[in-house]
């Protein structure tokens, strides 16, 4: 008995096939033949695409507050590292002058 292997499709491939099915310019059977995918799979991808279509146009959750907090945290970290870097440069230069003497 032959062992069946599962095919895995990329998200972009699924979107392409689903979009073709949504357009309706070709029958599902024709798309199945062209893309070498079972017609039921195309119907499922089409249904998923239509179900999630609204999310494409929905406003993202108000994450600007989270982003602002994250940016502020990163700016503080950059400031701290800049101060540490300057301190180390100054002390390394002084150390090198001292060891050369």
Spell out the blueprint of helices and strands.
Blueprint (H helix, E strand, L loop, with lengths): L10 H13 L4 H8 L3 H19 L6 H37 L1
Helix pairs in contact: 1-3
Task: Describe the 3D structure.
This protein is mostly helical. It folds into 2 domains: 8-55; 63-101. It has helices at 11-23, 28-35, 39-57, 64-100. It starts with 10 loop residues before the first helix and ends with a helix.
Q: How many distinct folded domains?
A: 2
The biggest sheet, with number of strands, parallel, antiparallel or mixed sense and barrel status, is:
none
Overall structural class, as computed from helix and strand content, comes to: mainly alpha
Mean pLDDT: 87
* SS field, number of helical segments: 4
User: What is the C-alpha radius of gyration, as a whole number of Å?
Assistant: 29 Å
Helix content: over 70%
Q: End-to-end distance, in Å?
A: 84 Å
Beta-strand residue percentage: under 5%
Net shape: elongated
Instruction: Return residue spans where pLDDT drops below 50 for at least 5 consecutive residues.
Output: none
Please give the number of β-strands. Answer: 0
Order of helices and strands: HHHH
Outline of this structure?
This protein has 101 residues and is mainly alpha-helical. It is built from four helices and no strands. The mean pLDDT is 87.
Task: Jot down its keywords.
single chain, 101 residues, mainly alpha, 2 domains, 76% helix
């Amino acid at each position: 008995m032959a062992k069946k292997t599962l095919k895995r499709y990329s998200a972009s491939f699924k979107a392409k096939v689903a979009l073709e099915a949504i357009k309706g310019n070709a029958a599902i059977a024709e798309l199945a033949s062209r893309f070498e995918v079972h017609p039921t799979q195309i119907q499922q991808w089409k249904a998923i695409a239509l179900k999630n279509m609204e999310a494409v146009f929905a406003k993202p959750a108000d994450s600007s507050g989270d982003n602002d907090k994250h940016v502020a945290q990163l700016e503080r970290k950059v400031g701290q590292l800049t101060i540490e870097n300057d301190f180390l440069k100054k002390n390394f230069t002084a150390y090198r002058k001292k060891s050369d003497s």
